[in-house]
Amino acid sequence: MRQAFANLLENALDFTPDGGRIRIFGEGDGDHQKIIVENQGEHIPEFAFARLTERFYSLPRPATGKKSTGLGLNFVQEVASLHNAKLALRNTDTGVEATIIF
């Protein structure tokens, strides 16, 4: 799980512009616990959502245009699954939110 959270944080750092904010926080209700990594980066393009956790799929980093190995979110999804959790990704009013739901 530590490496999965590190991957989410690394993605947030890669996609957040200089001076942008990254928030990491937890939420819970009676049934579910969530750990959320939220950043003020560009929204995820709609066409990419279906492939974000696909092995070797990567979007270019805004600052450099370079792509990663495309293994990070696939790894996060697999680790979450092994812990009976799931990964949820969504655009927000201010950026992007990655949530692991237990």
Write the layout of secondary structure elements.
Elements: H1 2-15, E1 22-28, E2 33-39, H2 72-82, E3 86-91, E4 96-101
Antiparallel strand pairs: 1-2, 2-4, 3-4
Helix pairs in contact: 1-2
CATH 2nd-level architecture: 2-Layer Sandwich
CATH top level class name: Alpha Beta
Give, in spatial order, the strands making up the sheet with the most strands: 1-2-4-3
Provide the residue-averaged pLDDT: 95
Using the coordinates shown, work out and report the CATH topology.
Heat Shock Protein 90
CATH superfamily: Histidine kinase-like ATPase, C-terminal domain
Radius of gyration: 13 Å
Query: What is the beta-strand fraction?
Result: 25-35%
Helix content: 10-25%
Order of helices and strands: HEEHEE
Structural class: alpha+beta
Q: Give a count of the beta strands, DSSP E runs of length 2 or more.
A: 4
| Major sheet size, sense and barrel closure | 4 strands, antiparallel
Overall number of domains: 1
Describe this structure in words.
The structure is a single chain. The chain has helices at 2-15, 72-82, and strands at 22-28, 33-39, 86-91, 96-101. It is α+β, with helices and mostly antiparallel strands and 102 residues long. It has a single domain (2-101), classed as Heat Shock Protein 90 (2-Layer Sandwich), CATH 3.30.565.10. A 4-stranded antiparallel sheet has the order 1-2-4-3, with helices on one face. Strand 1 and strand 2 (33-39) form a beta hairpin. The model has no long low-confidence stretch (mean pLDDT 95).
